[in-house]
Design goal:
Length: about 210
Amino acid sequence: MTAETSQTLDRGLRVLKLLADTDHGLTVTELSTKLGVNRTVVYRLLATLEQHALVRRDLGGRARVGLGVLRLGRQVHPLVREAALPALRSLAEDIGATAHLTLVDGTEALAVAVVEPTWTDYHVAYRAGFRHPLDRGAAGRAILAARQSPSTDPGYTLTHGELEAGASGAAAPLVGVTGVEGSVGVVMLADAVPERVGPRVVEAAREVAEALR
């Protein structure tokens, strides 16, 4: 901690991070141990966070992340989209195909940013806001592959005709970005994805991940 930072705010943010990393919540005692502060401090932090709906406590007294974080989360997509656009533009122009950033939204894949190439005679129309199941399409399948192998490089995923007849897709997951689960990919009208596209998509996914860190 430095003179310019707030110790109380720092502790409150650490509480939220600890709660976000658990599915079953934490007790005051557990939080006290993890933070290295006494229980009275933890009670005050939780009471303040509860007032803002950022934390809730169940009947057993375990603290969990509150629904108030959803209101904050609504502002995440525009920030992520802005950070990803340079890499998506470069990818779309390089490959000559529609590039997209897709994030997990519940059980679905949600396209939050789309860039179309400027020099091609035709390309696949793909819009921001498009949703599809995670187990269909390259974007969702790439995310699932990263979930299955979180400690290894999942590479890229190729699909054909799963979301649109005659269209092929390639996507690579975002790796190493805390709190963001998604993928970067391209979709094109082709029977098969050219060999160079997969590695180029992986490169773009790394660029986006770097921009979000």
